[in-house]
Design brief:
By secondary structure, the chain is mainly beta. It has 1 helix and 20 strands. The chain has a single domain, classed as Hexapeptide repeat proteins (UDP N-Acetylglucosamine Acyltransferase, domain 1). The chain is globular, with a radius of gyration of 15 Å.
Length: 177
Amino acid sequence: MIRSLGDKKPKIAESAFVSEAAYVIGEVEIGENSSVWPGAVIRADFGSIKIGQNTAIEDNCVIHSGTPSKDSYREEVVIGDNVHIGHGAVVNCRRIGNSVLIGMNATILHDSEIGDFCIIGAGCLVSQGMKVPDRSLVVGVPGKIKGRATDEQLWWVEEGPKIYVEMAKKYKELGLE
């Protein structure tokens, strides 16, 4: 379901796939070949949410804008290109860079920023305001940087978005939007 919020209307690239069972509202921008799967909620009511190209938002994810550190609670969320956000993740941060894997059921709290080529492990809790440098591997509760992501670990970062771009094309061809 795609909804405007007053004069704030989602802008979704024609090549993007948004499941009919997802809920997208407000000042949301979704880039080329990106996908939003069933049960996902992308709610841009306190600020805008921009999602880049070739980015997959898997089933039951929540992406919400806003931060308790600002008087007005308005804050933009920017998610880069080639990002793979795993099932059930909750994202309420300022920025996720390009080529990032957010593991299943991870939680990314307010005001945090994730660099490029990072892996956030399944079930990880990225604390409010945490700054994650490029090529980091973050795991645990609370999340701790365990070092640089290896090339082997980055396989999902590189291949996951490609797999989901192709799957989204199949869903669109079958009229499953």
